[in-house]
Amino acid sequence: MKQPSSAFTVWRARWETIANNRKALPILLVLGLLLSFAIPQFNLVNPYIQLIIMYVGINIILTTSLNLINGYMGEFSVGHAGFMAVGAYASAVLTTQVLPSELNPWLFPLVVLAGGIAAGLVGLVVAIPSFRTRGDYLAIVTLAFNMIVKSIIENIEAIGGPRGIPGVEKLTTLPWTFFWTVLAVWVIRNFIYSNHGRGVISIREDEIASDLMSVNTRQAKLLAFTISSFFAGIAGALFAHLLQFISPRVFDIIKSTDILIMVYLGGIGSITGSVLGATIYTVLLEVLRPLGMWRMVLMPLVLVLLMLFRPRGIMGLREFRWLIPLQDLLGSKRWRQKKEASDATPAN
Amino acid sequence: MTYFLQQFLNALQLGSIYALIALGYTMVYGILTMINFAHGDLFMIGAFFCFIAAGLLKLPFVPTLLISMAGVALLGVAIERVAYKPLRNAPRVSAIITALGVGLFLENFTLVFSPYPQSVPTLIPNQTWMLGPVSISSLQIIIVLLSIGLMILLDLIVQKTMIGMAMRAISWDKAIVPLMGVPLNLIISITFAIGTSLGAAAGVMYAQAFPVIDPYMGIMVGWKAFISAVVGGIGNIRGAMIGGFILGLVEIMVAAFMPSTYRDFVAFALLLVLLIFRPHGILGKPRPQKV
């Protein structure tokens, strides 16, 4: 019998060497940083594609941070755009109304940080109901939170009310997007593989059992919500200074649904999945633009088909190996050897 | 006081629409423990069926209502068979995301054929009566009475018939009951048909009460009906009715006595307060957690 998939196996082997090579990570990072400076400097690609790259970066931050709650903690948060709105408004108010405009380019990292901190503080407030309610009821709390944020912004005249803030300076550049994206992914990955992160994952598996095993579930929930909303705020700040116009309507439930779709497209509980999901979704929406209105019909169909044939998303609960810290990898290898050894010699 | 009574009537009208939609959410949840996020969009399809039957085919009210209910029920059953059934044993969230995808598909598919808001002709002759100082329109009476009638009918079906007994049994235990000879797929299909046709009825009434319809109208109404289902205790049919009326009352009263831009804010803040004191809704029972 001929082997029909010989080309496929060759590509698969190559793909796996790339995906598992730990040296790839620093090389990719340095290359990415250089490219992010070079692209706007020498106009390597046209501005439209640069814009899409920046949106991809922002969406990666949003998706990874939501994955921390929905994927790793196993809750169902549907109000991520609310945190994004807090970050966007906090930073946009700073640059348009508080800070002198000539200082804006220099203070931009601090402004983004301020947006993240504002959203993180709000995230603390939302974490408190999560101590008592779970599942669908917590989903309602986050949904209500999203609508309340939108409603409050609409009712404050000082920040434009329903009209929003026009004329935000365009400060988000490719290097900054790259920096914040890498920072978000790096922090969340390290958090997940830390002791606290294990606590968060144990809540997903079984909250009562992890409580009995003396995991401080309240602290873990607080941490997860705060980190997640902090990065949502950072994404919001970058988004506001890229779009140059924000209004409450941008951050409604439809935006939250978009982020949810990216998370589940990539797969829950996987950082690689979040990065891939955000990239594929954003790029696909742009590539299909010539289809006009039918693109919005096609995208949900693709999503439904993906869920039917791969219910866990693209990378659900799996990870590129170079994203996993070395000691975890070695640990799991030792565990597998031990298991294989014990399977080979069953104890009676 | 007169003003209050007048607004109370409006609240009854809105609340009965919310309650009808919330019933669909809660029935599906009770049986499948799955949130059917496409339900708000099925409500929208119901309103568009009303537009097609009444605006293009010039049918009167009762055939329009029946056509819309039947059409949406078929659509709901088809969606369940194609999109949800293969995911019954998959992780719960995959089914939820599929439902979100189906909802988006319905919205955008309708948008392709009707990019502009459509206005629905009124089918019920508009007549108002004065009850003392309060005026009641024929539309309000029909909406409230019809919804209450449908709810009583549903309650009878669920409590008194064999099908209802099978539904309650399946929501009690999905693994054992099919072994007793209860046809699981048939009962789930019937549940979807009933739930979505109630949503379609709400859609027709909504299109009569607020006659401009567009493909995105189901999003907000759907989420609000979902909230009413949760307030009443999701999975509980009588709870969904109560939750719908409560949400309608709160929304109308806030809009009546405060600046109307505070409507969403106050309504949702009240919800949060309610969930703090009754984390499982008004009629919901906390399920015992096992380790």
From TrEMBL, chain B:
Q: What InterPro entries does the record tag this protein with?
A: ABC_transp_permease, BCAA_transport_permease
| Membrane-spanning ranges | 12-35, 42-59, 96-116, 136-158, 179-204, 216-234, 241-259, 265-283
Single GO cellular component term: plasma membrane
- Domain of life per record: Bacteria
Q: Name one GO molecular function term.
A: L-isoleucine transmembrane transporter activity
Q: Do the record's keywords include Kinase?
A: no
Localization annotation: Cell membrane
Q: How does it sit in the membrane?
A: Multi-pass membrane protein
What is one process in the GO biological process aspect for this record? L-alanine transport
UniProt xrefs under PANTHER family = BRANCHED-CHAIN AMINO ACID TRANSPORT SYSTEM PERMEASE PROTEIN LIVH, HIGH-AFFINITY BRANCHED-CHAIN AMINO ACID TRANSPORT SYSTEM PERMEASE PROTEIN LIVH
State the similarity comment. Answer: Belongs to the binding-protein-dependent transport system permease family. LivHM subfamily.
Name of protein: ABC transporter permease
Q: Which organism is it from?
A: Levilinea saccharolytica
